[in-house]
Amino acid sequence: MSNKLQFRHELKFFINYHQYLILCQRLQSLIDPDQHANESGEYHIRSLYFDDINNSALADKLGGLRERAKYRIRIYNIQDNIIHFEKKIKLDDYIAKIKEQLTRQMYDEIMAGNYEVLNVPDSPLFMELYNQMRHNLLRPKVIVDYIREPYVCHNGNVRITFDKELRTGLHSTDIFDKDLHPIRAIDENFIIFEVKFDEYIPEHIKIALQLEGLNRQSASKYVICRKFLKTNTWEDY
Fold it and tell me: Which residues form the VTC domain (predicted)?
């Protein structure tokens, strides 16, 4: 692992609504809601995932490669005040994330196919994206849309999230499209439960979560939503 990257543990689970209610009840007296959440304790996330001409991100995930990466543009609450281009790196059960902020104008230029806006020598991520788009035909693939209920614990830098109403934008790739009506990508009874932490989970939170009683899953939102665009049998999961 690179010394320049901060890798964290990431555990993912599919849970049903009943399990979600039990976990929330246990957590609410032990851990704080994320400060960015609204009065309901939630916020909306919409991401546009990219892949290259060989669908490498999809193939690497389905192939179970221990080291892989995905690129995405992410916005919150369908607003353009914060737009990030992110690279998420996965190494076994560890994750790291690199991101750069985009302006709305840069986003519009990228979507119009003008990748020169990413030719920024001072930004290693932008230069990597620029070269990926020029040489490997990295292009927008699918919109992933969901509601997140986040909790944080500074002791151990633990972040716990419940991702609900996972939806896919199908063939649409404009995350600011006001007429976009994404469709459900998983059964409405299921919620993606994620636990991220640095070195450890405090014992009282570990006891409340009872993670050993849950079944860990390979819950890639990108893969789940890409299945709606499947054209080859190898894209099954």
Answer: 7-229
